[in-house]
Amino acid sequence: MSKRGTGTIDVLYGINAVTEAIGRRPMEHVLVAEGQHGGRIQEIIEACRAAGVSIRFAPRPALERTAGTAQHQNVVAVCSPRNYDDLEALLRPEGAAAEPPLLVVLDGVEDPANLGAVVRTTVAAGASGILIPERRAAGITPAVARVSAGASEHLSIAKVTNIARTLEELKQQNIWTVGLESANAGGGGGAPYDSLDYKMDCALVLGAEGKGLHDLVSKRCDFLVFIPMLGKVSSLNVSVAAGIVMYEVVRQRRRAAEMRKR
User: Fold this and answer.
1) pLDDT tens digits, residue range 20-39?
2) CA 105 → CA 16, 53, 165, 206, distances in Å?
3) Which of 195, 231, 239, 258 is the most exposed place for a label (fewest CB within 10 A)?
4) 122 near 221, Cβ under 8 Å?
């Protein structure tokens, strides 16, 4: 399985992000704020020692300079970048289960907080992986890793050149593409999200904050669905919308599995 790097060095910060990266990424060293030895910090120290990772104790200002933020929770890791997977790795995962694949395709999500939240939900829902565009979109940065609480270390993530073209590639692999519209009433002719049968190999396609799906991407989707807005709001945050639809997929597939056992 080939992978592509994101650069030469990365700086992770936050307890969860650093914890999940230990043993999964080569690390130059881990900085711990002086005087911090209890609780989860001590667990990180012990994990570093077990993995042969160098630990350095330094004043908090030194950690802030290295992390570029004061929100480091007293621990910073200097490590190799998070690699991206090839698309083929997501389509043919090693040791794939019998469950139909579920991919998440993000059409230009630019906010790192939103991307981190989508990543965490994708891992929680047991989805196969995420596809993101190479340009005009957030990548898996240290900020995204922190928001995802380290979940990004457990997910296959591929960068693609062109989302619309990638949807065509997915179709050639017999994966149905489901675009989530941002319009309240499904202005593009979509159906309510829970009316679709998701017990198929499928990819959920979600658009950028405030913009929704690009026209060309929307036209390439096999199905369009929307989440009805029943209150006095016109749309949901992309990470919230992703969670709602992904867990509808999980619900349908679990119910089908239970029916098969009867």
Assistant:
1) 999 989 999 999 999 877 78
2) 25, 35, 12, 6
3) 231
4) no
Q: What single letter denotes the amino acid at residue 221?
A: C
Into how many domains does the chain fold?
2
Helices (H) and strands (E) in the chain, counts: 9, 13
Domain boundary among 39, 56, 79: 79
* 108 lies in the same domain as 60: no
Spatial separation of the C-alpha atoms in residues 132 and 135, rounded to whole Å: 9
Strands (E), the chain: 3-4, 10-13, 27-33, 55-58, 75-79, 84-85, 102-107, 129-133, 157-160, 176-181, 191-192, 202-207, 223-226
Please list the residues that pair with 177 across neighbouring strands: 203
| pTM > 0.90: yes or no | no
> In one letter, which amino acid is 50?
A
Q: Residue 127 and residue 142: Cα distance in Å, rounded?
A: 22
How far is 182 from 225, CA to CA, in rounded Å? 9
Burial of 185 (0-12, 13-18, 19+ CB in 10 A): exposed
User: Are 154 and 238 in the same domain?
Assistant: yes
3-state secondary structure of 95: coil
Are 130 and 238 a contacting pair, CB within 8 Å?
A: no
Query: What distances in angstroms separate CA 227 from CA 83, 121, 238, 242, 244, one per listed residue?
Result: 33, 17, 11, 10, 9
Amino acid at 19: T
